[in-house]
Amino acid sequence: MPLTVERLRTWILVSGGVLVLVLGGFFYLAHWKQRFLTRDLPKRLGVDIQQDSTGFTLSKSHNGRTLFTLHASRAVQLKNGGNAQLHDVKIVIYGQGASQRQDRISGDEFAYDPKTQTVQAEGEVLIDLQAPDAGTAGKPANAESTIHLRTRGLVFNQNTGVAVTTQAVDFRLPQAAGTAVGAEYDSQQGLVTLQSQVVLHTVLDDEPATVIASHAVMNRQIWQVNLTTARLHSEKRDASADSATLWMHPDGTADRMLAEGHLVMTTDDGTELDAPRGTAQFRANSRVEHVHVEGGVKMHQTPPDKGGTVRDGQAEQAWLDLDAKSKPAQLRMQGGVRLTESVAGATPLQRELRAGHADVAFRDGVAQQIVAKESPMFEETSTTKQHKSTKLLQADTLDATLRNGKFLDQVHGVGNTQLTQQESMGQVEVSHGDDLVAKFGTTEVAEASDGRQQIVSAVQQGNVRFTRTAPAAKPASASKAGGATGVDRSSGHAARAEYRQADETILLTGDPRLTDTSADKAVVDMAAEKITMHRATGDALAEGAVKTSYVSEPGAATAHVVGERAVLAHAQQTATFTGSPRLWQDGNSVEAPTLVLTDKPRGLMAESGADGAPAVHAVFVQRDAKHPQPPVRVMGRTLVYSDAERKARFTNAVTLVDANGTVRADKMDVFLKPAAANTPAMSHMAAASAPMGGQVDHILATGDVFLDQPLRHGSGEELVYTADDGKFMLTGSTKRPPRIEDHLNGSVTGDALVFFSRDNKVDVENGPGRTVTTTHLSNKGDSK
Fold it and tell me: What is the mean pLDDT of residues 730-750?
C-alpha cells in the first residue's frame, strides 16, 4: 500500500499516543515506588517515615518514648523481595528511663531486609556510645566520656535493638583504646560485648599497660566491664586471672576491680603472687590504692639474676595499701602467715617467719618493718657440709626492722619471749624472758651485699631462764641416779642474757645463777655478778663475788667455794677458781690463790702461784667423842687431793699446825676417813663425799721433818700421825736417825720414836726386833 500523507499522519498520531501511554506508565511506576517508600516501607519496618529536604527519617516508639530514629539521605528499592538500599545512614538510639543519652550508629551504605527486619552495613560503621548519665539533671553530654567503635558488617535488628558484627573492631574508651574481633551492642540493656581477641591499651599507675582478654562485656548502666581469661601487662607488672570485673568512672578511670580464678601477679623485681581471688580499689586517676587477695595466697620472689636470695610467702588472705605514687605503704597478712627467705652460697642460709597475723610497713615503697602476732616464730638456719645451726625466736609479738627493704636489722620480741639455738651435733639451748632483741649483721662467711646477715647478738631481759643440753665432751658411763649417759645439762637464770655470735658466748648478768646438772658429772651451782657461757663447749666463766656449791655425785655432801673468778671447763671436767678462793665442806676448808676442782679423776688441786703469793691453807676437822681434837691446819705451796685415795698431798715447804704444835716437812699427805666411816648412819649412796670432805684418818709427813711441841722438839725423815689415838711415829735413816729432845733432858733417838699427843712419854724402838724403851719427857721442867 502506498504511503500517503493521511496514512503518515495517522501513524504519527498512533505512535504519539503509545509514547504518552509509555511515559504515563513510567510516571505511574515512579509514583508507585514513592508510595512504597512513604507508605509500605514504614509499614513493614513498623516505624513512621517523614520525607524532608535532606532525605528520609524513620523512627520507632514504645509507650510514648522514642526508641530510635534512622535517617538516610536516600533509599533505593531493590527488586530482590522488597529489600532496600540505604545511603548515608545515621541511627540514633535513645536512652530510656531518666537517661537522655543518645547513642549513634553511622555508615555510608546499609541494606534493609524486610523479612528479618534488620539493617546491615556494607561498609565501615562508626558507633558512638554516650555515658549513661549524659544529659541528665541538666548536664550536657560529655564527649570525653563517649565510647567510640569502628567496624564493618554491622547488623542492627529493629525489634531487639541489638547491633552485631563478626568482623574486627577498633574501639576507644575514655583513657583507653583497643581492638577486638566481633562485637554486640544491646541498646535496651546498655551492654557492649566484645566477642574475642580483646586487646586494650591504657595507662595504669602513670605507665602504659595492655589488657588482653578472650571475651569482654561492658555494662554502661553501671560502668562495669567483665573480662574472661584476662591478662594485664605493663613495664613493672603483669597479672592474669580466669575472669575479671572492672568498675569505672564515667570519665573512663578505674574505680575498683575483682579478679577470680588463678589470679597471678608478677612484678619486675621477680615477685610472683598467686591467689584464687583478689580485689583492687583505685584512686580517681586510676592509681591502685588498695589490693585484697584471699583464698590461700602464695608469694614467690626470684632475683632477676637467678641467684642470691629467693623469698616465698603464704597466708589465707592479704591486704596491700599503696600511697599516692602507687608504692606499697602497708601490707597486712592474716591466717597461716609464712614468709621464707633462702640465701644461696657456700653456706646456705634459710629464714622463716610464721604467725597468725603479720603487718609490713613501707616507706617510699621500701619495706621497713614487720610486726607479727598470734604465736609468731622466727627461725634461722645456716648449713655447711659438716654443720647445721638453727636459731628460733618466739614471743607474743615479734617486731622486725629492715635495711633497704632486704636485710634484717633486728627482731624485737615482747612478752613470753623464747630463744632456742640448736646444733646438728645435738646441742640445744633454750632461754625464756620478758623481752628479746636480736640484731643482725655480716659474719666472717658473709658478704655485706648478698643478704647473708645473720643473728650476731641477742639480748633477753626480764626473768630470764636458761637451759642447755649437749652430748658429753667425752664418752661417759651411765649415771647411778638415772641411767642417762653422755649428756651435759645446765640451767640458769638472770635478769639479762646476751648472746654474742662473734665468740659464740652467752653473758648472764643481773644476779645470774648457773647450775650444771650433768647426769654423770658433779653438780655445780654457781652465782656471780656475771657469768659467760661458751655455746659450743658449755664452758663457763663467772666473775665478781663468785659463790659456788659443788656436789661430786648424787647423794654426796655439798662443798662450797667462793672467790672472785671461776672457770668451768667441760672438756677437761674442771672448775678453776681464782681471786682468793676458799672451799669448805664438813668443817674442812682450803684457801689458795688458785683452786681447781676435777671430776675425772675426782679431786682438787691448789697452788700458791709465784713466789711471795699466799700459800695454800687447808683446815681439817678431827671429831672424837672421847677425846675432842681441834682442827688441823696445813699450809704449803701446792695441794693435790684424790677422792679415790681420800688423800690430800701438800708439797713444797709444808707446815702443819694443831693444838699440839707444829710440823714442817717437804711433803705431807693428809688421809681422810672413808665416806662411810664419816657418816655411819647414812646409806652407801648418801655417804659419798665431796672434795676435802670428812675427818682426818692419818697424816704422813716426809722429807726434812721437824716437830715443835710445847714439851718436845723432833726431827726426822718421816712422821706418821694417827688421828683416832693421837699417835705420832717419827722415823729417819742411819745417816739421820729420828730425834726428840727437850731443853732440860736432852734428846732421845732410835730407829723409831713413838709418842702420843695426850701424854709426855716416848717409846723408842731399836734393833731388828724393835726393842721398845719408854722414856718420859719433863713436865713443867721435871723429867721421869
Answer: 84
